Amino acid sequence: MRPKAVFFDFDDTLVLTKKADEVAFLKTQELAKEVRPDVDTAQLINDFTSRFTALPWDPANSHLHLERGVEDLIDWLKVEGIAIVVITNGHPDVQRGKLAAAGIEKFVTHILVGGEEIQQGRPEKPAASIFHRACSLVGCQPHEAWHVGDNLYSDIRGAIGAGLAAAVWINPQGRAASEQHAQPTHTIAHISELQDILVAELQAFSTQTEG
């Protein structure tokens, strides 16, 4: 089946937010040491994390950038007429801030934030409903959509449970997917590998239709 849409997780799929989070932690720790050199800075950070993320400037966001190959991949998907949706869990303010900092909003068709879904009385990933909502937004059926993400539970289990055509696991560490988790359709180490898989899928579909 030729995919009509590809859905993407955001954190550590389109951008490496773990590295950005580390930067934010270190910068906050430096600030805490200046203000209160007599206290445990790690504990202090834990105490005010919720307040820190609400500040108008988050040092993590200044280090966010799209992963290598993402823009080329998106351009190719658009040429192929394949819709693009980002499906990300998390607090709306935090996620929207990161999405804006990475500049992803101008590239994709729709963005669904799990925290916003919860505010509307709907669950976030891995619930099937958020994947089905993405399908509705782009006008495709679940079996016509792929999902790509780094989390075996929220991304892979969610996509398979929702009946999507394929669930692609980004697995840079080369970890084995345990039997208790849903098994991915494809496993890649980096987002830049996805296009080759999709090209092969489109070629196979073209061969079938010609035959």
From TrEMBL:
- SUPFAM superfamilies, A to Z: HAD-like (SSF56784)
What cofactor is this protein dependent on? Mg(2+)
Q: Name one GO molecular function term.
A: N-acylneuraminate-9-phosphatase activity
Keywords for this protein: Hydrolase, Magnesium
GO biological process terms, semicolon-separated: N-acetylneuraminate biosynthetic process
Q: Does the keyword Magnesium apply?
A: yes
* A Pfam family it matches: Hydrolase
- PANTHER family given in the database record: N-ACYLNEURAMINATE-9-PHOSPHATASE (PTHR46470)
| Name used for this protein in its record | HAD family hydrolase
